[in-house]
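Entry 12.
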Amino acid sequence: MHDSTAWGCSNCGLIASDGQALLVDTQFTLDATRTLLSAVAETVPGTEITTVVNSHGNGDHTWGNQLLPEAEIVTSASSAAHLCHEMGPEELARLCAQGDTSPVAAYAAQHFGAFDFSGVEVTGPTRTFDGRLEIKVGTTLVELIDLGPGHSAGDVAVHVPEDGIVFTGDALFNGAHMVTWSSSFSGCVAACDMLLATGAETFVPGHGRITYRPGVREIRDRLECIGQAAAAHAAAGIPLEAAARLVCSEYAGDWAHPERLFTAVAAAYQEAGVPGAEDMFSRVAGMAQLANACSAGTTIISRWVRSPSGA
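Predicted 3D structure (C-alpha coordinates):
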Protein backbone atom coordinates (compact mmCIF):
# COMPACT_ATOMS: atom_id res chain seq x y z
CA MET A 1 0.00 0.00 0.00
CA HIS A 2 1.30 3.45 -0.85
CA ASP A 3 0.73 6.56 1.21
CA SER A 4 -2.12 8.13 -0.73
CA THR A 5 -1.53 11.50 0.95
CA ALA A 6 1.94 11.68 -0.63
CA TRP A 7 2.66 13.70 -3.75
CA GLY A 8 2.00 11.64 -6.88
CA CYS A 9 0.17 8.80 -5.10
CA SER A 10 -3.52 9.03 -5.95
CA ASN A 11 -6.68 7.00 -5.54
CA CYS A 12 -8.43 5.46 -8.52
CA GLY A 13 -11.88 3.89 -8.75
CA LEU A 14 -13.55 1.13 -10.74
CA ILE A 15 -17.24 0.76 -11.57
CA ALA A 16 -17.95 -2.64 -13.14
CA SER A 17 -21.25 -4.04 -14.41
CA ASP A 18 -22.14 -6.83 -16.85
CA GLY A 19 -18.68 -7.22 -18.36
CA GLN A 20 -18.00 -3.48 -18.74
CA ALA A 21 -16.07 -1.14 -16.50
CA LEU A 22 -15.42 2.55 -16.03
CA LEU A 23 -12.06 3.47 -14.53
CA VAL A 24 -11.78 6.72 -12.58
CA ASP A 25 -8.27 8.05 -13.29
CA THR A 26 -5.03 6.32 -14.10
CA GLN A 27 -1.72 6.58 -12.27
CA PHE A 28 1.39 8.79 -12.39
CA THR A 29 3.66 6.24 -14.08
CA LEU A 30 3.25 3.39 -16.52
CA ASP A 31 4.45 0.83 -13.98
CA ALA A 32 1.91 2.01 -11.40
CA THR A 33 -0.86 1.93 -14.00
CA ARG A 34 0.11 -1.59 -15.06
CA THR A 35 -0.13 -2.66 -11.42
CA LEU A 36 -3.57 -1.05 -11.25
CA LEU A 37 -4.76 -2.79 -14.41
CA SER A 38 -3.45 -6.14 -13.15
CA ALA A 39 -5.47 -5.68 -9.97
CA VAL A 40 -8.57 -4.90 -12.04
CA ALA A 41 -8.08 -8.02 -14.17
CA GLU A 42 -7.66 -10.15 -11.06
CA THR A 43 -10.67 -8.67 -9.27
CA VAL A 44 -13.14 -8.67 -12.19
CA PRO A 45 -11.75 -11.13 -14.76
CA GLY A 46 -13.14 -10.84 -18.25
CA THR A 47 -14.29 -7.26 -17.71
CA GLU A 48 -13.41 -4.68 -20.36
CA ILE A 49 -12.57 -1.12 -19.35
CA THR A 50 -14.59 0.77 -21.92
CA THR A 51 -14.38 4.22 -20.34
CA VAL A 52 -11.76 6.17 -18.42
CA VAL A 53 -12.87 9.33 -16.61
CA ASN A 54 -10.08 11.74 -15.77
CA SER A 55 -11.13 13.77 -12.74
CA HIS A 56 -8.76 16.52 -13.95
CA GLY A 57 -5.60 16.90 -16.00
CA ASN A 58 -2.79 16.46 -13.44
CA GLY A 59 -0.28 13.77 -14.32
CA ASP A 60 -0.84 11.71 -11.19
CA HIS A 61 -4.38 11.08 -12.47
CA THR A 62 -3.72 10.85 -16.21
CA TRP A 63 -0.21 9.80 -17.23
CA GLY A 64 -1.23 6.15 -17.48
CA ASN A 65 -3.97 6.89 -20.04
CA GLN A 66 -1.90 5.55 -22.94
CA LEU A 67 -2.21 2.00 -21.60
CA LEU A 68 -5.94 2.02 -22.38
CA PRO A 69 -5.92 2.85 -26.10
CA GLU A 70 -9.33 1.29 -26.80
CA ALA A 71 -11.16 3.11 -24.04
CA GLU A 72 -13.05 6.37 -24.38
CA ILE A 73 -11.33 8.96 -22.17
CA VAL A 74 -13.72 11.56 -20.75
CA THR A 75 -13.18 14.76 -18.80
CA SER A 76 -14.73 18.21 -18.52
CA ALA A 77 -14.20 20.70 -21.32
CA SER A 78 -12.52 23.16 -18.94
CA SER A 79 -10.11 20.51 -17.72
CA ALA A 80 -9.22 19.51 -21.27
CA ALA A 81 -8.72 23.12 -22.37
CA HIS A 82 -6.40 24.08 -19.54
CA LEU A 83 -4.55 20.80 -18.95
CA CYS A 84 -3.49 22.26 -15.59
CA HIS A 85 -0.53 24.07 -17.21
CA GLU A 86 1.81 21.63 -15.49
CA MET A 87 5.22 20.29 -16.45
CA GLY A 88 5.35 17.29 -18.74
CA PRO A 89 7.01 14.05 -17.57
CA GLU A 90 10.36 14.78 -19.21
CA GLU A 91 10.49 18.32 -17.83
CA LEU A 92 9.58 17.13 -14.33
CA ALA A 93 12.26 14.41 -14.48
CA ARG A 94 14.88 16.99 -15.55
CA LEU A 95 13.89 19.29 -12.69
CA CYS A 96 14.17 16.46 -10.15
CA ALA A 97 17.63 15.59 -11.51
CA GLN A 98 18.86 19.09 -10.65
CA GLY A 99 18.84 18.17 -6.96
CA ASP A 100 19.70 21.02 -4.60
CA THR A 101 20.47 23.62 -7.27
CA SER A 102 17.40 25.63 -6.22
CA PRO A 103 14.62 25.40 -3.60
CA VAL A 104 12.14 24.38 -6.32
CA ALA A 105 14.41 21.65 -7.70
CA ALA A 106 15.09 20.34 -4.19
CA TYR A 107 11.37 20.27 -3.39
CA ALA A 108 10.62 18.49 -6.66
CA ALA A 109 13.39 15.95 -6.10
CA GLN A 110 12.17 15.25 -2.57
CA HIS A 111 8.59 14.53 -3.65
CA PHE A 112 8.89 13.30 -7.24
CA GLY A 113 12.46 12.03 -7.59
CA ALA A 114 11.53 8.41 -6.88
CA PHE A 115 9.04 8.21 -9.77
CA ASP A 116 10.10 6.72 -13.11
CA PHE A 117 8.36 8.56 -15.94
CA SER A 118 10.03 6.53 -18.68
CA GLY A 119 7.83 5.95 -21.69
CA VAL A 120 5.00 8.26 -20.62
CA GLU A 121 3.25 9.85 -23.58
CA VAL A 122 0.70 12.35 -22.31
CA THR A 123 -2.65 11.17 -23.68
CA GLY A 124 -5.60 13.52 -23.52
CA PRO A 125 -9.35 12.94 -23.53
CA THR A 126 -11.35 11.73 -26.51
CA ARG A 127 -14.61 13.20 -25.19
CA THR A 128 -15.46 16.28 -23.13
CA PHE A 129 -18.60 17.63 -21.53
CA ASP A 130 -19.99 20.64 -19.66
CA GLY A 131 -22.31 20.49 -16.68
CA ARG A 132 -23.37 16.88 -16.26
CA LEU A 133 -23.11 13.73 -18.30
CA GLU A 134 -24.74 10.34 -17.74
CA ILE A 135 -22.94 7.18 -18.83
CA LYS A 136 -24.23 3.62 -18.68
CA VAL A 137 -21.70 1.01 -17.57
CA GLY A 138 -23.42 -2.26 -18.26
CA THR A 139 -26.69 -1.74 -16.40
CA THR A 140 -25.27 0.79 -13.92
CA LEU A 141 -25.94 4.50 -14.35
CA VAL A 142 -22.98 6.77 -13.65
CA GLU A 143 -23.27 10.55 -13.44
CA LEU A 144 -20.30 12.79 -14.20
CA ILE A 145 -20.42 16.21 -12.53
CA ASP A 146 -18.38 19.17 -13.75
CA LEU A 147 -17.46 20.86 -10.47
CA GLY A 148 -15.80 23.84 -12.15
CA PRO A 149 -12.52 25.44 -11.12
CA GLY A 150 -11.17 24.68 -7.67
CA HIS A 151 -8.26 22.32 -7.19
CA SER A 152 -7.67 22.55 -10.94
CA ALA A 153 -9.19 24.51 -13.81
CA GLY A 154 -11.98 21.97 -14.09
CA ASP A 155 -12.60 19.14 -11.61
CA VAL A 156 -14.92 16.20 -12.30
CA ALA A 157 -16.74 14.02 -9.77
CA VAL A 158 -18.07 10.55 -10.62
CA HIS A 159 -21.34 9.70 -8.88
CA VAL A 160 -22.83 6.19 -8.70
CA PRO A 161 -26.37 6.94 -7.46
CA GLU A 162 -27.50 3.37 -6.84
CA ASP A 163 -24.54 2.78 -4.53
CA GLY A 164 -24.45 6.21 -2.89
CA ILE A 165 -20.76 6.65 -3.77
CA VAL A 166 -18.88 9.59 -5.28
CA PHE A 167 -15.32 9.47 -6.57
CA THR A 168 -14.30 13.06 -6.02
CA GLY A 169 -10.89 13.34 -7.65
CA ASP A 170 -8.86 16.12 -6.07
CA ALA A 171 -11.92 18.14 -5.15
CA LEU A 172 -11.29 16.36 -1.83
CA PHE A 173 -8.04 15.64 -0.03
CA ASN A 174 -8.36 13.71 3.23
CA GLY A 175 -5.52 13.76 5.75
CA ALA A 176 -3.42 16.14 3.67
CA HIS A 177 -3.84 19.74 2.69
CA MET A 178 -5.28 20.50 -0.75
CA VAL A 179 -3.24 21.90 -3.59
CA THR A 180 -5.04 24.76 -5.33
CA TRP A 181 -3.83 25.26 -8.90
CA SER A 182 -6.78 27.39 -10.04
CA SER A 183 -7.46 31.01 -9.19
CA SER A 184 -10.71 30.15 -7.39
CA PHE A 185 -10.31 29.04 -3.81
CA SER A 186 -14.01 29.69 -3.23
CA GLY A 187 -14.54 27.06 -5.93
CA CYS A 188 -12.97 24.48 -3.60
CA VAL A 189 -15.66 25.23 -1.02
CA ALA A 190 -18.40 25.23 -3.66
CA ALA A 191 -17.21 21.84 -4.92
CA CYS A 192 -17.73 20.36 -1.44
CA ASP A 193 -21.29 21.71 -1.47
CA MET A 194 -21.90 20.09 -4.86
CA LEU A 195 -20.53 16.78 -3.60
CA LEU A 196 -22.83 16.87 -0.58
CA ALA A 197 -25.78 17.82 -2.81
CA THR A 198 -25.52 14.43 -4.54
CA GLY A 199 -26.95 12.86 -1.39
CA ALA A 200 -24.22 10.21 -1.45
CA GLU A 201 -22.95 8.74 1.81
CA THR A 202 -19.48 7.54 0.76
CA PHE A 203 -16.78 9.68 -0.85
CA VAL A 204 -13.49 8.49 -2.33
CA PRO A 205 -11.05 11.43 -2.33
CA GLY A 206 -8.29 11.92 -4.85
CA HIS A 207 -5.78 11.50 -2.03
CA GLY A 208 -6.24 10.01 1.42
CA ARG A 209 -8.71 7.68 3.05
CA ILE A 210 -12.34 7.15 2.06
CA THR A 211 -14.64 9.44 3.99
CA TYR A 212 -18.36 10.00 4.59
CA ARG A 213 -20.76 12.95 4.75
CA PRO A 214 -19.56 14.26 8.14
CA GLY A 215 -15.98 14.11 6.87
CA VAL A 216 -16.84 16.09 3.75
CA ARG A 217 -18.61 18.72 5.84
CA GLU A 218 -15.57 18.98 8.10
CA ILE A 219 -13.25 19.43 5.11
CA ARG A 220 -15.61 22.00 3.62
CA ASP A 221 -15.73 24.02 6.84
CA ARG A 222 -11.94 23.89 7.17
CA LEU A 223 -11.56 25.21 3.62
CA GLU A 224 -14.07 27.98 4.25
CA CYS A 225 -12.15 29.14 7.33
CA ILE A 226 -8.87 29.11 5.39
CA GLY A 227 -10.44 31.16 2.61
CA GLN A 228 -11.88 33.68 5.04
CA ALA A 229 -8.55 34.07 6.82
CA ALA A 230 -6.68 34.55 3.55
CA ALA A 231 -9.22 37.12 2.33
CA ALA A 232 -8.85 39.05 5.59
CA HIS A 233 -5.08 39.09 5.21
CA ALA A 234 -5.41 40.30 1.63
CA ALA A 235 -7.75 43.10 2.73
CA ALA A 236 -5.24 44.08 5.42
CA GLY A 237 -2.50 44.41 2.82
CA ILE A 238 -0.34 41.62 4.21
CA PRO A 239 2.14 40.31 1.60
CA LEU A 240 1.29 36.91 0.17
CA GLU A 241 4.27 35.06 1.63
CA ALA A 242 3.63 36.45 5.12
CA ALA A 243 -0.07 35.65 4.86
CA ALA A 244 0.73 32.07 3.86
CA ARG A 245 2.85 31.68 7.00
CA LEU A 246 0.06 33.10 9.13
CA VAL A 247 -2.51 30.74 7.62
CA CYS A 248 -0.12 27.82 7.97
CA SER A 249 0.49 28.55 11.66
CA GLU A 250 -3.27 28.70 12.21
CA TYR A 251 -4.59 25.85 10.08
CA ALA A 252 -1.77 23.36 9.49
CA GLY A 253 -3.00 21.03 12.22
CA ASP A 254 -1.79 17.45 11.92
CA TRP A 255 -2.52 17.09 8.21
CA ALA A 256 0.29 16.28 5.80
CA HIS A 257 1.92 18.89 3.56
CA PRO A 258 0.97 22.13 5.31
CA GLU A 259 3.15 24.01 2.81
CA ARG A 260 0.35 23.47 0.28
CA LEU A 261 -1.57 26.14 2.14
CA PHE A 262 0.55 28.60 0.18
CA THR A 263 -1.47 27.67 -2.92
CA ALA A 264 -4.76 28.21 -1.08
CA VAL A 265 -3.70 31.67 0.02
CA ALA A 266 -2.40 32.52 -3.46
CA ALA A 267 -5.75 31.55 -4.99
CA ALA A 268 -7.68 33.55 -2.38
CA TYR A 269 -5.44 36.55 -3.05
CA GLN A 270 -6.17 36.29 -6.77
CA GLU A 271 -9.90 36.22 -6.06
CA ALA A 272 -9.42 39.34 -3.95
CA GLY A 273 -7.68 41.05 -6.88
CA VAL A 274 -4.20 40.87 -5.36
CA PRO A 275 -1.72 39.50 -7.94
CA GLY A 276 1.07 37.11 -7.12
CA ALA A 277 2.07 33.45 -7.70
CA GLU A 278 -0.37 33.11 -10.56
CA ASP A 279 1.34 30.23 -12.40
CA MET A 280 2.13 26.69 -11.35
CA PHE A 281 5.90 27.21 -11.08
CA SER A 282 5.46 30.23 -8.80
CA ARG A 283 3.14 28.25 -6.55
CA VAL A 284 5.63 25.39 -6.32
CA ALA A 285 8.29 27.95 -5.41
CA GLY A 286 5.99 29.34 -2.71
CA MET A 287 5.37 25.86 -1.31
CA ALA A 288 9.10 25.13 -1.25
CA GLN A 289 9.76 28.40 0.58
CA LEU A 290 6.99 27.74 3.11
CA ALA A 291 8.19 24.17 3.68
CA ASN A 292 11.68 25.48 4.41
CA ALA A 293 10.28 28.07 6.81
CA CYS A 294 8.24 25.44 8.63
CA SER A 295 11.19 23.04 8.91
CA ALA A 296 13.34 25.86 10.29
CA GLY A 297 10.70 26.55 12.95
CA THR A 298 9.97 30.05 11.64
CA THR A 299 6.89 31.63 13.22
CA ILE A 300 5.10 34.91 12.74
CA ILE A 301 3.04 36.55 15.45
CA SER A 302 0.53 39.10 14.21
CA ARG A 303 -2.55 40.86 15.47
CA TRP A 304 -4.31 39.59 12.32
CA VAL A 305 -4.06 35.93 13.28
CA ARG A 306 -7.55 34.58 14.00
CA SER A 307 -8.82 31.51 15.77
CA PRO A 308 -10.28 28.62 13.71
CA SER A 309 -13.76 29.77 14.73
CA GLY A 310 -13.11 33.13 13.07
CA ALA A 311 -13.32 35.02 16.36
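Annotation: Residues 298-311 have pLDDT under 50 and may be disordered. The first strand starts at residue 13 and ends at 17.
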